[in-house]
Amino acid sequence: MGDTKENILDAAERLFAESGVSQTSLRAITQKAKANLGAIHYYFGNKETLINEVIDRRFNDYYQNRGNQLKRLLKKASKPTLEEVLRVYIGTLSHYRRSFPDFVRIMGHIMTGPKDKMREMYQRIAETEADWQMANTILSFFPPERHKAVLKRMVVFSALFLSLSTNMPTLELEADHFGVELTEEQLENYSVSMMAAGLRTANQE
């Protein structure tokens, strides 16, 4: 039974990525998963729940992975640098973008779709202990009176990196236009450096 549920989730993830969530029918999902409609109703009840589970299984794993990496970093004998903390944040995002391209495309569909759907999805996945653990770790590098200014910058950078992750072809086109090559390692290094420098401007506000 577990295999059937995973097959349905895998099929839904692939089809949602290819055609968009609203354009994908339950019948198409059952055909790709080699299951029947009754299996979808048994495991998920309806399409909305199926969509949520497709999203949740990746984000739950993402947050757990990122949280574990952050805990390991914080257990180091010496205090980590801001750049090391940001590398956990950006590195985990980069890893999931490369490992689950279909899921990233789904997020792109949702981000460019109706605003209420995006808000509903974001509120469900973003209000997690892991998010505040990361935020509070970053804030610990700054005096309390600068925390609001830092949070404003974190919001901007988080939105930029999420948008970039769901629209990598644009970055590739820009690189081709200017005749430069950009490796994954360089992209991650530049992102860490830019975010660290941007957050530190909060001390000048």
UniProtKB/TrEMBL annotation:
Record PROSITE patterns: HTH_TETR_1, HTH_TETR_2
Domain HTH tetR-type: 2-62
DNA-binding region: 25-44
InterPro entries xrefs: DNA-bd_HTH_TetR-type_CS (IPR023772), Homeodomain-like_sf (IPR009057), HTH-type_TetR-like_transc_reg (IPR050109), HTH_TetR (IPR001647)
Keyword terms: DNA-binding, Transcription, Transcription regulation
The UniProt record lists the keyword Transit peptide: no
Keyword Transport carried by entry: no
Protein name: HTH tetR-type domain-containing protein
Naturally occurring in which organism (per UniProt): Dethiosulfatarculus sandiegensis
Lineage: Bacteria, Pseudomonadati, Thermodesulfobacteriota, Desulfarculia, Desulfarculales
